[in-house]
């Protein structure tokens, strides 16, 4: 299996630290709003990477944080007149709903920055003790980049260039830095902000230190893969490396993976341009499986452009797979349970699509080519699993199609494709039946939904449903 490593700028054979195990850390979102479709890209991409490792027999420990203390969260809390905690709790819950809709599996652990402050203070103290960090008179603690000769190795930047760049943009208050490229590990509180006691001042951690600490706590000092969007390479990941390697005295992550950006109509997505879509907005128009399909239709290191026609084409393509699965399912319910001789040879031929799929995924997770292999299988099924094929043959092709699409996290059976509106519609019908005292019909609808993987709960606020 080959992975493109940002650190070496090469595709490298994946060799785990411990046989059969993958320790993987993915930087998660800052939770001050509904996540946007740009945030969805690393979620979907690295969830697929995780699923593929699992398919290959690895035991994956997948850690992804929520940044729940940050300027943007505090700003939003002040705007709404509520606590920062209320904002982050609300948007973590919303993010988890979106993740579920996109079929992104929950991480093994989703640590929260605010729950790990003790570990951060400890790491900062170690860095100070070892001479890699220093407190300024106002209680800010800075990392001393000049003490880490490898600073810049991930982003392939040169320290002198960085120093002159930072010197040009120094703002007041930063004169206390020894070097313009030094970065913050701990900062003093401002009025009305959440804060914690520390040996240096009451304040809060810088952003970078949280990931170094959480990765160490949940995965160990040395990890296999660290991932995130390409905007995180500098300074975030560069600074994580500096902190972790200076504190622990060993290499931090072996492989650094970064997804390219998602643009909208060929422009950078930004609030000021107004071309901003949340995942929630998209879910009102499309099943989020379509969004997932769309994201996987490009290689994760290629920039991807989001547009309505491309989403429509993703919808049509996904529908082709669903229709093929549907047909195979019907045929697999047929009478003839023995494979015909001609079908045995055809199944051997179809094994090629799994091999092609694996070859694509083994080559730095080329999901675009992996999807092409899925479509070859769809075409093959449509051609060969027609009238008169055995149930066993259709069943075998369906199993193969299901296995490959599951690795990509795509749900292709009709039952799984049930849309929110259909669910709401059935719930309304059930309520009407209950009102008319037709309890048999009401139960029937509940059962029908259950078979489609939807559980109902009657609460005081009305009927709630959830996918199970
Ligand atoms: P943030 O909440 O800004 O820290 O972002 C969370 C994750 O989403 C990070 O891995 C970012 O790199 C990634 N991300 C943000 N915007 C985009 C985008 N437009 N395209 C792809 N990834 C993005
Ligand atoms: Zn991070």
Verbal overview:
The chain has 468 residues and is an alpha/beta fold. It has 3 domains: 2-259, Rossmann fold (3-Layer(aba) Sandwich); 267-407, Isoleucyl-tRNA Synthetase, Domain 1, CATH 1.10.730.10; 420-467. Helix content is 48%, strand content 15%. It has 15 helices and 15 strands. The strands form 5 sheets. A 4-stranded parallel beta sheet has the order 4-3-9-10, sandwiched between helices. Strands 5-6-7-8 form a 4-stranded antiparallel beta sheet. β14 and β15 (462-467) form a beta hairpin. α4 (117-129) packs across α6 (207-219), α9 (288-296) crosses α10 and α12 (367-384) runs antiparallel to α13 (391-407). It is globular. The model has no long low-confidence stretch (mean pLDDT 94). It binds adenosine monophosphate and zinc ion (ZN). Adenosine monophosphate binds next to α1 and β9.
């Amino acid at each position: 299996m080959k992975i493109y490593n940002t650190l070496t700028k090469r595709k490298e054979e994946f060799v785990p630290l411990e046989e059969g195990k993958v320790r993987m850390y993915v930087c998660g979102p800052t939770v001050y709003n509904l996540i946007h479709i740009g945030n969805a890209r690393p979620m979907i991409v690295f969830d697929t990477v995780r699923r593929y490792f699992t398919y290959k027999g690895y035991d994956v420990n997948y850690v992804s944080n929520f940044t729940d203390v940050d300027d943007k969260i505090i700003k939003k809390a002040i705007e709404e007149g509520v606590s920062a905690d209320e904002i982050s709790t609300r948007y973590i819950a919303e993010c988890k709903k979106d993740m579920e809709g996109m079929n992104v599996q929950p991480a093994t652990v989703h640590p929260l920055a605010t729950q790990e402050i003790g570990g951060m203070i400890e790491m900062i103290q170690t860095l100070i003790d070892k001479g890699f960090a220093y407190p300024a008179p106002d209680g800010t603690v800075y990392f001393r980049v000049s003490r880490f000769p490898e600073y810049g190795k991930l982003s392939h930047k040169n320290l002198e260039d960085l120093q002159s760049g930072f010197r040009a943009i120094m703002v007041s208050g930063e004169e206390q830095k020894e070097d313009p490229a030094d970065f913050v590990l701990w900062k003093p509180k401002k009025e009305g902000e959440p804060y914690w006691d520390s040996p240096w001042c009451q304040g809060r951690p810088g952003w970078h230190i949280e990931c170094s600490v959480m990765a160490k706590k949940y995965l160990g000092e040395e990890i296999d893969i660290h991932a995130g969007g390409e905007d995180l390479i500098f300074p975030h990941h560069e600074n994580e490396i500096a902190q972790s390697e200076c504190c622990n005295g060993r290499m931090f992550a072996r492989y650094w993976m970064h997804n390219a950006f998602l643009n909208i109509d060929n422009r950078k997505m930004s609030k000021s341009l107004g071309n901003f879509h949340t995942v929630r907005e998209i879910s009102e128009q499309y099943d989020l499986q379509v969004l997932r399909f769309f994201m996987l239709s490009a290689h994760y290191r290629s920039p991807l452009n989001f547009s309505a026609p491309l989403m429509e084409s993703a919808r049509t393509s996904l529908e082709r797979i669903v229709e093929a699965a549907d047909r195979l399912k019907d045929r697999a319910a047929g009478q003839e349970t023995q494979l015909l001789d001609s079908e045995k040879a055809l199944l051997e031929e179809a094994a090629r699509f799994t091999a092609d799929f694996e070859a694509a995924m083994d080559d730095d997770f080329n999901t675009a080519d992996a999807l092409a292999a899925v479509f070859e299988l769809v075409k093959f099924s449509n051609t060969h699993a027609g009238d008169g094929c055995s149930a066993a043959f259709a069943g075998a092709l369906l199993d193969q199609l299901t296995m490959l699409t599951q690795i990509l996290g795509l749900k292709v059976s009709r039952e799984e494709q049930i849309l929110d509106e259909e669910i709401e519609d059935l719930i309304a019908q059930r309520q009407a039946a209950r009102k008319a005292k037709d309890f048999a019909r009401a139960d029937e609808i509940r059962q029908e939904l259950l078979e489609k993987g939807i559980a109902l709960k009657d609460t005081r606020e009305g009927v709630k449903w959830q996918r199970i």
